[in-house]
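Structure tokens please, single chain.
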Amino acid sequence: MSNTSPQHRRAHARNNKSTGRNPAHRPPLPPPTSPLDFALGAVTFIAKRYLFIEPKQRAYIYLAVVVVLSLFADYMPLPNHYYFVQKRNMFNQYGPKIGWFWTTLLLSPFIYLTSMVHHQQSVGKAVRDLTRLAVATGSWLFWTKMWVCASFRF
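Here you go.
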């Protein structure tokens, strides 16, 4: 008896009716993923992987990256005609002066994404973690201004 016999088809139809499944009606496919969704998914995946590494291992990774990049900078100097090497480029002029701005600009999305991953999409807890950064920024501004004022007085 072949699999396409009338008895087999009837039995298959009875099984599908009893389970409520209809092979002709498949569940719809999800909509296509946009490039932004793909990029956010990739960043979230990487942040999740980084977030759950033990702090000691993270410190070793950070140390290794700093050492490798420092050696690269020492032994592979770039020619002076590159824009980023010149002392008068915009980033070298304003980057150190507003360093906390650059740190906050890069750190805020990282804190938000890792907080969303760690706290299972809780926006309230992500805002709480970003508020910590805002408080640290405020205290940094306060204490740097206080040291500047103290240096002029004494």
